[in-house]
TrEMBL record:
Molecular function per GO: ATP binding; ligase activity; metal ion binding
InterPro entries the UniProt entry points to: ATP-dep_AA_Ligase, ATP-grasp, LAL_C2
Domain ATP-grasp per the UniProt entry, residue ranges: 113-324
Organism: Amycolatopsis eburnea
Pfam families: ATP-grasp_4, LAL_C2
Record-linked PROSITE patterns: ATP_GRASP
Lineage of the organism: Bacteria, Bacillati, Actinomycetota, Actinomycetes, Pseudonocardiales
Protein name, UniProt field: ATP-grasp domain-containing protein
Length: 420
């Protein structure tokens, strides 16, 4: 029997989903992890067929050496911070499906912006911001208002909108202070060349238009978009509050242009035998512009459940089949009504003690499922977009209905935090 090794960086619901998909393909699923507490090992033991414990899952040569005698047939992950290093492990073992260098480039937002521009795709004006003294020049080059973000960030962490040079300088100091303190390993990834992602940030001109998400599957050089998901509920911090599929009021023509932009971006980056979660803004002047390519993984949180309900396509199983090189899984049929996905965040910063109120949310007539992503002991931060509680809904009429559902769910869910 073939064996796939799933590399795990931190806790994540995706681990059980990936292991189930590996087993459904008739393979063994073993977990590669750093040392575990007894309770967590027991919890994960029911999900996988074995463990390989290593000192550092990011040390590709050491992990490859630990796996070599086990004759691995595939090595995979959906952990954002270690996608490139896991691909490097697969390369060292001769089972890679997509080059690690492709993922390394995809995790550098400025390199992505350059690659998409070279491919002739539209994009915002962009510049690297390495010195607050350069703020006046950067503002003139990119234009204001603008977005400031980590070069290797994700999930809206420390993304700031600025409208003046003073705000641009303040954003630089904020990122330079907060990023080194962030415990998420993705912000400490070493990028090729002299660029220090803890001191050099990306500034992009602000786009004007609705935002969408597209998961793209790439098999044998052919990119297939799953569908377009609308993101109509976004707060002032750029946090996603609610999504809907199909999007409200989106014509078939615009949907086609959005999926074309997403698939073109994925192919321009050289992705193959993998998937990507792509975010697009349909800018009033430029048309659909790719603003984020999360390469090597499907959508996060409960978005795979949203896509399965809306389309019948299990993007997690699809991603695993691409990593294993097995035939695509069977597909079903989506619901005949719009499906929504609501996200509730914890307010404040601290260590999670408990989450309450999810049972009351589950009792609401429009609610299909409630999925709690966070777990007790986890540190939650206002700096980071953490999908704490995810609510899948149907039976709503319009955007006002969806917004009212979010407000009701957010009022019912309660997070108890203690000082970290």
């Amino acid at each position: 029997m073939k064996t796939a090794f799933i590399v795990r960086e931190t806790r994540g619901q995706w681990i059980g989903d990936f292991a189930a998909a590996v087993r459904a393909a008739g393979w063994r699923a073993e977990l590669v992890t750093e040392p575990l507490a007894d309770g967590e090992r027991a919890e994960l033991g029911s999900l996988v067929d074995g463990f390989v414990v290593v000192d550092d899952v990011r040390d590709a040569p050491a992990v490859a050496e630990a796996l070599r005698d086990r004759q691995p047939d595939a090595v995979l992950t959906a952990a954002e911070g270690i996608i490139a290093s896991t691909a490097r492990i697969a390369e060292l073992l001769g089972v890679a499906r997509c080059p690690a260098a492709v993922f390394t480039r995809a995790h550098n937002k400025f390199a992505v912006r350059q690659a998409l521009a070279a491919a002739g795709l539209p994009g915002p004006r962009a510049a690297l911001f390495a010195d607050p003294a350069e703020a006046p020049r950067i503002a003139a080059e990119v234009g204001l208002p603008a977005i400031v973000k980590p070069v290797n960030g994700a999930a809206s962490t420390l993304v700031r909108t600025v409208s003046t040079v003073d705000e641009l300088v303040a954003a630089y100091h904020l990122l330079a202070t907060r990023l080194p303190e962030n415990s998420d390993a993705r912000y400490h990834r070493v990028l090729p060349g002299p660029l220090d992602p803890l001191r050099v940030f990306l500034v992009e001109s602000l786009l004007d238009g609705p935002e969408y998400a597209v998961d793209v599957l790439v098999r044998d050089g052919v990119a297939e978009p799953v569908t377009v998901v609308g993101k109509p509920l976004i707060d002032e911090r750029k946090f996603e509050l609610g999504m809907v599929c199909p999007p409200f009021g989106l014509s078939g023509e615009r949907a086609g242009l959005i999926t074309e932009a997403a698939t073109a971006a994925v192919l321009a980056l050289g992705l193959d035998s993998t998937c990507a979660h792509v975010e697009v803004i349909d800018d009033a002047a430029l048309g659909p512009v790719v603003v984020e390519v999360n390469a090597g993984r499907p959508a996060g949180g409960a978005q795979p459940a949203l896509l399965r309900l809306a389309t019948g396509i299990d993007v997690t199983a699809e991603a695993v089949s691409l990593a294993l090189g097995t035939p695509p899984p069977a597909r079903g049929t989506g619901l005949p009504v719009p499906v929504g996905y609501l996200i509730v965040y914890a307010e404040g910063t601290g260590r999670l003690v408990r989450v309450e109120g999810t049972a009351e949310v589950a009792d609401l007539p429009e609610v299909l499922d409630v999925v709690t992503i966070v777990s007790p002991g986890q540190v939650l931060s206002d700096d980071q977009e953490i999908y704490a509680v995810n609510v899948l809904v149907a039976g709503f009429a319009d955007l006002d209905d969806l917004a009212a559902l979010h407000a009701e769910a957010a009022k019912l869910v309660r997070f108890e935090l203690e000082e970290a």
